[in-house]
Amino acid sequence: MVEFRVLGPVEVVHAGRPLALGGPRHRRLLAALLLRAGDVVPAGTLVHALWGDAPPRSARAMLHVRTSELRAALRIAEVRLSSRAGGYVLGAGPEDVDAWRFERLAAAGAAALAAGEPGRARDDLGAGLALWRGPALAEFADEPFARPDVARLGELRLRALENRVAADLDLGRHAELVAELGALVAENPLRERFWGQLVLALYRTGRQGEALRAYESVRLVMADQLGLDPGGELRALHAAVLRQASWLDPPRAVRRLHVLPAAVTSFVGRRRELPGIRALLREHRLVTLTGAGGAGKSRLAVEAAGVSAPDFPAGAALVDLAAVTRPGCAVPAVAAVLDVRERLRRPLFDALAERIGGERLLLVLDNCEHLVDEVGEVALRLLRRCPELRVLVTSRERLGLIGEAVRPVPGLGLPAVGAAGVDAIGRADAVRLVVDRVSAVDPDFRLTEVTAGAVAEICRRLDGLPLAIELAVAGVRTWGVRRIAASLDDPFRLPVSGSCGTSGRHRTLRAVVDWSYDLLDDAQRRLFDRLAVFAGGFTAQAVEAVCGGAPGDGPPVAEVLAGLVDKSLVAVDHTGVEPRYRMLGTLRAYASERLAESGGVSGTAGGAADVMTATSSAVITDGTADVTADGAHGRQAAHLVAAVASAGARRGSARSDGAEPVPGRGRARRSGRQPASSATATSVTGAIDGKSPTLVAVPVSTSIE
Q1: CA 435 vs CA 110, 170, 427, 440, 472: distances in Å
Q2: Considering only Cβ atoms within 10 Å of each terminal Cβ, which end of the chain, N or C, has fewer?
């Protein structure tokens, strides 16, 4: 990333370091180009910037030399400096130039202040003002080519300062402003708004006499330098101070809440997501973070609430609803956190809504998946009664309300497929979490060529789920990362114990999934179990064929599948021609156990075999079909062969009648693309549910281990 800076000495920063640009003329040329970044700057304008009103005869040729030298200096940052008809253009966008970013932030802050959002205004204005490192175009501020822009930017900076002080006054920070305003009026003695803000800040801190003296000072300054009296607004303020007008009083003291749990571990891997969630809370009054159990929704919500604090003068409060199991207890839980008590003949909800009132408060409702309907109703009623309230929800399922913004929370980033070596593996967020947690209990631990493979395997087997990773590495001092990685064939039999600092349903990975599974209805449980036969992605049509029951036997499979997607138990990818679904590996392992226990393997495996036959038929009848392992038919075949094998193997292991178990592995060799008529082989699915062995056509390009 490259950053062009003109709010101070002119410089270019690339990869965190200033570039060497050459001498003063190169920086002068760059400054002239940056003032019109993205536009063609006429050669005559650049000549005037370099040599003023007396350019040498060879000015055009010398300009060409200077631009060539500057182009070479910028090449390392991959910045284009192009010649166009009659001039030159610097390939820098608005966000690359600090002056442009400042103007954008200053405008956003002014708009927020006008909209009655002082917290947001102060945040934007503070970020914009922080870009200033000194006078604009410092070394060229007095040059004719720069003077108009220097004056314009300086005026915008003073206006932004006035607006930021106004936001602070609205936030009740008058006491801490007095010293800053004293310096500002000394530097800008004719700036009436600064004087008015100083008078107001002094009055609000109980210093009425000093406020009146401040007004007298500005009156004398203006009379001496301009021969004028202060303007109407300043005179009206003076009169209000004399009569102690009520509108001068500070804003009603806001009872700022900070009912957020303090973190006991470092926050790893999701900091890039926090600005996005903060932006959602600015644009939407209800935001829901959804994701599978253990994905880190609660921690992300707490961190997002923390970084959003400037936007909420009334503060933030978290209500953990995990332990609320009885209907009708959501309102009492929220009221308890906000210290609201029921009063005689006054419903508790009314007292709660009255407590929040018009305050700009962020309410975090955590762990809501078992109370979706009730929490949705409570949130909607509060949002209607409290116009400045924002609600951030964490749930494995969205609330389903109009106006709700949903932010899925997946597992942490995994090492790229085929990644090898410490550097490549160590960049993944999930790996960084493992290293952070292991290092906390074993200070000598390092990610090395010896341990990197095992750490990557832990992350992949656990789908990057933060809670699963935390539980897995809890016993690292006893077992080591390689032993833990080797034990993850069954993630529910980890050789570790859960943390005593977590709730009961978060102490083991099985408890996490049990909680989600127990919230399903019978049809959803049945389909969830049967989806275990899919080793990879699958389509809705495949689910219908493999997992569907007889007509009229329960709700439609598509409807049940949509319910599992809503509850974050099945993920969906819409990037292809048709949606493809998949289960996290940990959820599939859990579903496999349930399927074997229920004895539902046989029908499911039979359906998988039928779909495999249908898939093969499609390949055979289409001589141009893509049957490579990466093609659509190849992928479907791979997943369905695995489905038959997996289901058959589990059925065989679950049988008690002495029948031979079904072989659990199929193999076909990989080849390139070829006509489907010659690209099929057969695989015996074995006896499933007492049926005779079935010959199933399989594309030979598919390899299943």
Answers
A1: 44, 45, 11, 9, 12
A2: C
pLDDT in tens, 394-415: 999 999 999 999 999 999 999 9
Closest CA to 395 of 367, 355, 428, 373: 367
The pLDDT, as a whole number, for residue 701 is 32
Query: For residues 215 and 237, what is the distance between their CA atoms, to the nearest angstrom?
Result: 9
* 596: Cβ contacts below 8 Å, ≥ 6 apart: 650, 651, 653, 654
Instruction: Report yes or no: 175 and 205 within 8 Å, Cβ to Cβ.
Output: yes
Q: Return the ∠ at Cα 612 (arms to 557 and 624), rounded to 5°.
A: 115
Separation of CA 258 from chain center:
22
* H or E element, residue 697: strand 695-699
Q: Round to whole Å and give the CA distance between 201 and 428.
A: 50
Q: DSSP strand E in 360-403: where?
A: 362-366, 390-395
Question: Which residues are paired to 329 by β-bridges?
Answer: none
Mean pLDDT of the chain: 81
For residues 592 and 654, what is the distance between their CA atoms, to the nearest angstrom?
Answer: 12
Where do we find the tokens 């190169």? 26
With 0-12 CB in 10 A as exposed, 13-18 as middle and 19+ as buried, what is 450?
A: exposed
Phi, psi of 406 (to 5 degrees): -110, 130
Overall pTM surpassing 0.85 (yes/no) = no
> 697 forms bridges with which residues in the sheet?
682
DSSP 692: P
φ, ψ for residue 477, nearest 5 deg:
-65, -30
Give the three-class secondary structure for 185.
helix
Q: Looking at 169-304, which runs of residues are DSSP E strands?
A: 257-259, 286-290
* Token couple for 372: 């979706």
Q: How far apart are CA 137 and CA 147, in angstroms?
A: 9
Instruction: Name the one residue in this structure whose structure tokens are 């009659």.
Output: 86
- DSSP β-ladder status, 390-395 and 404-408: unpaired
3-state secondary structure 6-39: CCCCCEEEECCEECCCCCHHHHHHHHHHHCCCCC
Q: How confident is the model at residue 673 (pLDDT cuts 50, 70, 90)?
A: very low
Of 444, 449, 491, 453, the C-alpha closest to 471 is: 491
Cα–Cα distance for residue pair 308/503, rounded to 1 Å: 26
Rounded to a whole number of angstroms, the CA Rg of the chain reads 34
Rounded to whole angstroms, how far apart are CA atoms 128 and 103? 7
- Residue (of 150, 152, 220) closest to 185 by Cα position: 220
Residues paired with residue 17 on neighbouring β-strands, in sequence order? 14
Do the bridges between strand 87-90 and strand 41-42 make them parallel or antiparallel, or are there none, so unpaired? antiparallel
Phi first, then psi: give them for residue 81, nearest 5 degrees: -120, 105
Closest CA to 601 of 550, 539, 646: 646
Judged against a pLDDT cut of 80, whether residue 305 lies above it is answered with yes
Instruction: Provide the 10 A C-beta neighbour count for residue 669.
Output: 9
DSSP 412-431: PPPPPTT--SHHHHHTSHHH
pLDDT of residue 291: 93
Residue whose C-alpha is closest to residue 124's, from 148, 175, 157, 160: 160
Regarding predicted confidence, which is higher, 352 or 586?
352
Task: Read off the DSSP letter of residue 552.
Answer: T
- Residues 6 or more apart whose CB falls under 8 angstroms from that of 514 comprise 505
Rounded to the nearest angstrom, the gap between the alpha carbon of residue 567 and the centroid of all alpha carbons in its chain is 20
